[in-house]
Structure formats: C-alpha cells, structure tokens
Protein 1
Amino acid sequence: MTYCVGLKLNEGLVLLSDTRTNAGLDNISTYRKMFFFEKPGERIITIMTAGSLSVTQTTIARLQEAIDLPEADETTSIMRAQTMLQVATIIGNTLNRTRREIVEQCRELNQQASASMIVGGQRAGGEMRLFLIYPEGNFIEATEDTPFLQIGEHKYGKPILDRVVRPDTSLDDAQKAALLSMDSTLRSNLSVGMPLDLAVIRKDDCRVSHRRIAEGDPAFMAMSAAWSAALRDSFVKVTI
C-alpha cells in the first residue's frame, strides 16, 4: 500500500509520497512513487503513484518512451502537450491501456492489477492544475472547494487536511499539513513507510524543489513529537 497527497494552493503545489511497497508480511520493499518530468522555466509535471507496481512502473516507462520518440507530438508526449488537461488525458489513456494489458496477462492466475495517480504541474503561460487519475483513465481535478487530492491509504491523513487546508494556505503551512497528514498515516498503518518524498512547485516558476525525508529525520521527528504533545494538551482541555 502507499499514501500520496497533493495540495493545490494559490501560491503553488505541495506533493508528498511515501516509498513503501508491501507484497506480503515478509516482502516489504522501498520504491520511489514520485516522478518528475521537467524542463525548468518551460514546464514541470509531477506524477505520484499508488497500486500495482507492475502497472505503475510500466506506465511511467511508457510515458518516458513516448517523450523520447523522434515522432513525439502534443497528442503522445506529456512534454509536448499544450495544456495540463492534455497531459492528464495522455497519462490516463496510458494508465488504462497498461492496466488492461496486465490484467489480461494475469487472468489465468486470477490476479487483479490496478493503480491510480496524482498528476500536478504547469506549463509556462498556462494554469497550474492538479488531477487524480483513476485506474480506468478518467480523472477529477482539485478545486477551491476541495484543494487537495489523495491516493492509497488516505483515511488516516484526511481529517487534518479537511480542517486546515484552504486555497489561501501558505506553502509553508501546506507542507506542515501534508507532513502531519503523513505522520498520522505512518502511525496507524504499517503498509505506509519512510523515506518520504516532498516536492514544492511555486506558481509560475515551472521548476520543482524536492526533498527526501529519511527515517529518523530530526526535523520530521520534532514536528511529530510537537503535534502529539499539542493533541494531548488539547484533549485534556476539552470538556463534555
């Protein structure tokens, strides 16, 4: 399992993913689930993945292959698409086609394969957008009413996002909210694990700032401890 969250704010995007892949109690591995396609100053596209590793890895590989083809154009390459909507459409079609092929290959074994993705970014001169792409290839978009999207094991980290994240939330506060959302998930579900990948994309910059947060990171541990203490203090003060 995994947990990925993306926040779309007036100032830009904040994206966070874990790296744990669980294929059973005795088969736990670390795989990157955040991928960047970037031409600094011209466009930045970030993809986060959840679900079957065979589906997500093959989809990412096919997207990269389409970019590298000499005949690539705006209908096949996410690095040539004219809008983020076209980017989401290309990714959705590729994800759906890949999923269908792998499901067919696994049919005799009676195995299922599914995956979902969060896609965010901006093209110079265009609008910054954030999409959640379903296994079937269709998608929804973050809005002012719902400025964040989640995939994977999302239920533990949703309450804090519901309470604090608004379009006018600053990028610094949004990073804190995303990390605390992840901290709640890490505490409640062993199928989500560190290290974490945190990315920030400032509006109209068309470039990404990325940070890898390893197990035992002092800043993350201090934030987690402070949040736990604050919750305990608030709990004591509440009356019924």
Protein 2
Amino acid sequence: MSLNCGIIGLSGTGKTTLFNCLSKSKAQAGYGGAGKTNLGQIEVPDPRLDKLFEMVKSEKKVPTTVEIADIPGLMKRSSGQKGGNKFLTDIRQTDALIHVLRCFDDDTVPHIEGSIDPVRDKEIVDLELIFKDMETIEKKLDKYKKASKAGEKDAIHGARVLAELMEHLESGQRAATFNIDKQDKKYIDDCFLLTIKPVLYVCNVDDESVVRGNEYTRKVKKALEEENATMLIIAAQAEAEISELDDPYERKEFLNDIGIDEPGVNKLVRKAYQLLDLQTFFTIGPKETRAWTIRKGMTAPQAAGVIHSDLERGFIRAEVIKYDDFIELGSEQACKNAGKCYIEGKNYIVQEGDMLYVRFNV
C-alpha cells in the first residue's frame, strides 16, 4: 500500500523544489497555473528497517514508498482557467494534501499576488477547492431534489444533509469541518470532496528561519488554531541542497550549520503517515528485509494481502514478533526460545512495528 499525497499551493511557493528533493527528480516548475502535474515516488526513511537489515544481513533492503504528485500552482478561479479543472481533478486523485505556503522573502521570485502573505494564500487555495466542492454538491443535490418530489424518503433526507453541507461550504468552511452523523456519511462519500481530505500545511522558509520560524509562520500558526491542523516548517531550498549531498558527513555538517538534526523531508513523510492513519510492519529473511505500509486497524489477513493476494486468500495464521523484542534478544530463534514469538489468527489486529511471518495454503 502506497501513500498518495498531492503537493498544492500557489505558484512560487516552492512546491516543485520540495517535490524534487523528496523524489530526487528534476521537474520544472510551472508558473501562473501553467505546466503539468509531476508524479514521483519516494522511499520512507525508517531507522528500524536499517537496524533489522544490519542484524539479519539479508541480500537487500526494501523500504516502503510514498507516491507523490506536484500539482501546478492554483490561481483565483482556477476552475474557470484553461487546464484548471484538470489540476483540480488531479487533486481529487490524492489521499491527502501537502499545502505549501510561502513564508520567505526573495525579490528574485515574484509572488503571483504581488506580496508575501501566507494566510491570504491559504484562503485563496481553500476557496478554489471549496468552489469545486460546491459544484459537485450542487449537481448531486439537484438529483435528490427531483427524487424528493416523488416522495422518496431517503432522497428527502439526503437533500437535507447536502443542503446543510452546501450552506457550510458557502460560509467559506471546508467539508472536513462539517459536523455530520455517521449514518449520513453515505450521502457524501461518493462525492470525493476536495476539502474533506486531510491537510498538512508546510511553511517554506529561508535557512535562518527553519528552527524558530518567522513572522509569516507565526501568522500561519495563529490562523490554523481554529482548524486544529498540523503545520511543519521546512526550508525547501536547503532541503534540495541536502538531497544533492551523497557524503553522510557532509550532510551532517550541513544540517548542523542550519541547526536541525535530520532533513525536514523525513519529518514531512512521518507527518504524512500520521495524517493518513498509516503504520508499518516488517518481514525479514535471507533474501530481503522489507517494510510494508497498512492502515491502522487492519487484521493479519489484510496485512498479508498487502504482501500478496494469495497470502490473504489462503491465510492460516501469522507468527508475530515485536520489533523491540527482536532488537533486545537479537534473533528470531532467540525470540522463540523466550516465548516472544506469538501465534495469531485471522482476528489479530496488526500493531506498529510488528514483524510477521505468514503461514498460508492455496
């Protein structure tokens, strides 16, 4: 299972710079809504995988991956611009959004709105997504209204729910903050709303502001208080330079110089994981040590299905070792001898960091 995140924001915010250092690509940024969506894949950094690989001495190490899309900068009324609907459709294909806000001054990079104001920029993008959601809801609401005239009770109730959501959107609020009963979610689930997606806000700053932030990041933090949203401060240009360094010592020196202990993109990936309620389990063997991604709450058979559909179809049981136990005892056999290898059935909920060996028969 791969994480699918879309990087959004206005032109000139540093979206593509961030995308390139995440995916090690050389994509070119579009300006003023021009360009196409750049697609990439990044490896999820996980020190636990490195430690297991070192201990097991497999032939290869396989990290889990993240799919990421750099969507061209939005503009006011993007849905009415040439290609605007395509960009908004690309956003619809994502599971979560990384909204990059420009929080740095640079006279060589003109701002599309003429001045630096990340809170205003956030509102511009939010409104574009809201406008698109309103179009979607309006079409479905019309269908329910027609069915309501025939006296269909479900359509009458659905129309009421959608009308309340439309009023919520018209007030400038995202669908994610709409209070809806669990049984009524069926009326909006098939709408694939843009503003219902979880969002991580990234404040792109200069090198000097990466540790303490600046006046722009403080304004963003205040604006996000009511949304209970997650914010991360990253210096995208510095991250791009770090990603170009192959020498671990040079990387460490660079990080020390700007006052951070690890690349900001590593924190970004972990935050995105949390945003989507994902977790990692591991498999080990002589051929490979591998990390796998699943959604929290998945059962052992479902996790086995991420490895291969045959494993889920013919699942018998899973042998589970906790990561910490393996590290402490040093080997699979030592864990078995100590009673730290657990036999779990079809109802077992896989936990973060579990090491699985799946028994199956097809």
